[in-house]
Design the sequence.
């Protein structure tokens, strides 16, 4: 074997494998660390009592009535999970999505119940109209078009109703232009200036949302959401969305989905000095679950590797359906 070394090589003096030799050494010099405190657990709340509806494509994730939701949140908090993201499935829907801002709406009731049951849990509420509208779109529809400006007041009313119920954080996901400014003005005007906004600033028109739309009952009845969600090939446009949302009063930014958009997460981390959230969406979760069920990969290793990749790309906080599993694994 030749002992010639390439010019500039410091081998054998330098051996990068030295710190890879044992698990303890690898952990000592690990650059990116995943922690349960980094995670937000999505929860779906539905009408009724004692209800747990399993969801096809989202193994171990279910729709829960308020009482069962409180049980689940209490268990998650005991495992070390500090925050949940709430999505509501209303009893009925209409053209405007009026259930979204109803004081007795499903999310509002869930927030009040959780606040009493698990007072230290951070309650983040998704603010959108799609779960509540009969057409399934994220804004008001007129003549087959999603009307931006008419939707802003409804989104702002929804945000205020969540804050009044006791939400800690408001997370608008609709992708209407100007909605962060409208929500910030409404919150401040009603005395909720201390409630932060985590804006879904870069939410893409992705193929990875399929299982979620069953979970939230939010599939559009016509067309798609490409006229308001981001076009997947675009990164510079995503940065413009982030800039505008921060200028309107957003306190943190959400990138959604996470794994197919790690470059967007990294770009946002490099450009903006605010907390960066990333949503490890239902399709990402379902793919690994199905592969693991067939024995094609090891779920624990694959899930932790995926979540670590999101953290490594620059996310401070990860919204993930694996939150409880990770709490146990770590």
Sequence:
């Amino acid at each position: 074997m030749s002992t010639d070394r390439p010019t500039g090589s410091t081998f054998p003096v330098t051996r990068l494998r030295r710190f890879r030799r044992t698990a303890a050494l690898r952990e000592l010099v690990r650059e990116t660390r995943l922690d349960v405190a980094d995670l937000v657990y999505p929860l779906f709340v539905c009408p009724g009592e004692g209800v747990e509806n399993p969801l096809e494509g989202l193994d171990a994730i279910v729709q829960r009535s308020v009482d069962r939701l409180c049980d689940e949140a209490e268990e998650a908090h005991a495992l070390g999970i500090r925050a949940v993201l709430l999505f509501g499935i209303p009893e009925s829907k209409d053209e405007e999505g009026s259930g979204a801002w109803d004081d007795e709406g499903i999310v509002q009731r869930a927030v009040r119940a959780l606040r009493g049951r698990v007072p230290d849990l951070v309650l983040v509420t998704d603010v959108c109209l799609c779960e509540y509208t009969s057409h399934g779109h994220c804004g008001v529809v007129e003549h087959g078009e999603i009307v931006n400006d008419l939707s802003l007041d409804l989104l702002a009313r929804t945000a205020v109703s969540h804050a009044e119920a006791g939400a800690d954080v408001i997370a608008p996901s609709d992708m209407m232009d100007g909605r962060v400014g409208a929500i910030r003005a409404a919150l401040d005007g009603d005395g909720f200036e201390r409630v932060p906004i985590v804006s879904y600033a870069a939410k893409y028109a992705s193929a990875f949302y399929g299982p979620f739309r069953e979970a939230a009952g939010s599939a559009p009845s016509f067309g798609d959401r490409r006229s308001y969600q981001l076009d997947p090939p675009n990164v510079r446009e995503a940065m413009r969305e982030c800039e505008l949302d921060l200028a309107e009063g957003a306190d943190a930014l959400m990138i959604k989905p996470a794994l197919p958009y790690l470059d967007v997460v990294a770009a946002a981390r490099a450009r903006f000095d605010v907390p960066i959230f990333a949503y490890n969406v239902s399709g990402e979760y379902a793919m690994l679950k199905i592969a693991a069920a067939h024995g094609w990969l090891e779920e624990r290793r694959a899930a932790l590797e995926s979540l670590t990749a999101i953290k490594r790309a620059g996310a401070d906080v990860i919204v993930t359906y694996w939150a409880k599993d990770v709490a146990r694994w770590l």
About this structure: The chain is about 40% helix and 15% strand.
